[in-house]
Amino acid sequence: MDSAVSPLDEVHEKIAKAARIARRELDEITLIAVSKTHPAERIEPLLGQGHRVFGENRVQEAQQKWPALREAFPDAQLHLIGQLQSNKADDAVELFDAIHSLDRPSLLKALAKAMDKAGKQVPCFVQVNIGDEDQKGGCPIAELPAFLGAIRETDIPLGGLMCIPPADIEPAPFFAFLDKLARDNGINGLSMGMSSDYETAIMQGATHIRVGTALFGARG
Ligand SMILES: *Cc1c(COP(=O)(O)O)cnc(C)c1O
C-alpha cells in the first residue's frame, strides 16, 4: 500500500482542524467530493478509500458516470451542485440524493411535480445570490423569505441554504451573512465553502462543503 498521505486524508485533517478551532463536531460537517469533469477511474480510488458523498454539476454527465459506480458502491450519495433547468427536474430527482441549486419558483414547481411523480422526496438547498451579482444564479436576498414560504407549502424537504460568494473577495463575510439568513429563517443546513475556502466556511458554520480541486487536482 502507498503510505503517502492522500488528498482525502489531507482534506480530512484540515476539516478536523477547522472544526476544532470553531468548537464544532465533525459529524455536523459533510464533505461533498466534487467529481465533475473527472472520469470514473479518478472517482473509484476515493470510493475505495471509503468516501461516499459526491457532487456533480451536470445532470447528463452524472447520468453517464454514476449508474455503474453506484452498482459497485450502492451506498454512494450524489449531490447536484450546479444550476438545474426545469426540464431536467425528472432526471435530477431520479438520480440525485440532494439538490443544492433550488433558486426560483419555476424550478420549485418542476421539482415538486417531479418528486410527486417519482414518489421520492429529495432534500433541496436554496441557492442564495449572496453577493447580489447580476450574472450569478441564486435567489435574490430580498425574495428569500417568500421563496422559503413557497417551499414550505410543498413536501420538499428543505436541506438548507447554499451560496457561491463573489470571486476574488474575502469570502468570510458572505459565509457569515448566509449563516445569518439561515438563522433568521429557522434553517440549519449551510452548503458553502470550496477548495480555496472550506476551512473558513467551517468556521462560519458550514454543514456541507463542496470540494473538488483539493481532492482531484485541477480540472482539464
Ligand atoms: C466546481 C464547484 C465546486 C468545487 O470547486 P473547487 O474549487 O474545485 O473545490 C463547488 N461548488 C460548486 C457549485 C461548483 O460548481
From TrEMBL:
Domain of life: Bacteria
Keyword terms of this UniProt record: Pyridoxal phosphate
Cofactor: pyridoxal 5'-phosphate
Domain Alanine racemase N-terminal, first and last residues per copy: 15-219
Family annotation (SUPFAM superfamilies): PLP-binding barrel (SSF51419)
N6-(pyridoxal phosphate)lysine modification, residue list: 36
GO molecular function: pyridoxal phosphate binding
InterPro entries: Ala_racemase_N, PLP-binding_barrel, PyrdxlP_homeostasis
Pfam families according to UniProt: Ala_racemase_N (PF01168)
Described purpose of this protein according to its UniProt entry: Pyridoxal 5'-phosphate (PLP)-binding protein, which is involved in PLP homeostasis.
Similarity-based family: Belongs to the pyridoxal phosphate-binding protein YggS/PROSC family.
The name this protein goes by in its record: Pyridoxal phosphate homeostasis protein
